[in-house]
Amino acid sequence: MASKNRASLTHKVRYAARNPRRVPPYARRLARDAWLRMKTRDHVGYYRAVMRSDASRTPFGAVGTPSEKRWLALGELQFDYLVKHGLKPGDRMLEIGCGNLRAGRLFIDHLDAGNYYGIDISPDILFAAEDTLVRYDLQDKLPHLTPVRDLQLEFLPAAHFNVVHAHSVFSHSPLDVIDECFANIGRVLAPGGFFDFTFNRTEGKEHQVLREDFYYRTETLVTLAAKHKLDATFMEDWEANDHKQSKIRVTA
Ligand SMILES: C[S@@+](CC[C@H](N)C(=O)[O-])C[C@H]1O[C@@H](n2cnc3c(N)ncnc32)[C@H](O)[C@@H]1O
């Protein structure tokens, strides 16, 4: 539920009592993440190291769906939503944090050749994305897959993308990363284009867990978007599905 504070000691103690078998893996993750934080300079470097560690075990797990069935379902959920909102083969799409193309493979198949551009901070998950292209026979669609250091987007053309999509990326991002994205997204959006992103919504205190999962109030993100002269709309129709995150659409 949107108001739960997963960072609070009360929540952690209650959760551990209800799920004793999850305590050892959580403790291992806590230790690993502390080690990775020590070795890296900033959030993006840290999260890139988390992705390297997770992807070396299973790329499906690294994007949050260890079972292939859930991986397929989460991809379809994203794809069906955008098609319902009018995604056409001629659209030019940028996917921020494309992962191993859980949804990207469906976007690539749907869009005209060359019209999909996926970026990610993790080279390791992009290697897995290439495996997905091979597995689904999508080579002829010639998608672009590019590792990025940050979200300045300065290497991309202005006013180019009708649709920008980021699923389960800001749920792993501190506010300064989202701020950087908002500062630059307006430049690459084509006239009439939109940027959809999901986020972990809380109606209580904003918090984070292990610097991996971040929880925001809707108004924080709407206000941040306005600072960059972007209009943000909470997407009520997305709430009807069983996904834990909420969605906001931003236009320039
Ligand atoms: C949970 S996965 C979701 C992947 C994909 N969007 C999907 O739904 O299958 C989050 C992805 O976002 C990437 N990511 C996290 N922070 C990012 C950032 N600041 N810029 C670009 N990619 C980022 C991660 O490397 C990872 O591949």
UniProtKB/TrEMBL annotation:
Transmembrane segments: none annotated. It comes from Actinomadura rudentiformis. One of its GO terms (molecular function) is methyltransferase activity. InterPro entries: CFA/CMAS, Methyltransf_12, SAM-dependent_MTases_sf. The keyword Lipid metabolism applies. This is Class I SAM-dependent methyltransferase. Belongs to the CFA/CMAS family. GO terms for biological process: lipid metabolic process; methylation. Keywords: Lipid metabolism, Methyltransferase, S-adenosyl-L-methionine, Transferase. The keyword Kinase does not apply. Residues 94-195 form the Methyltransferase type domain.
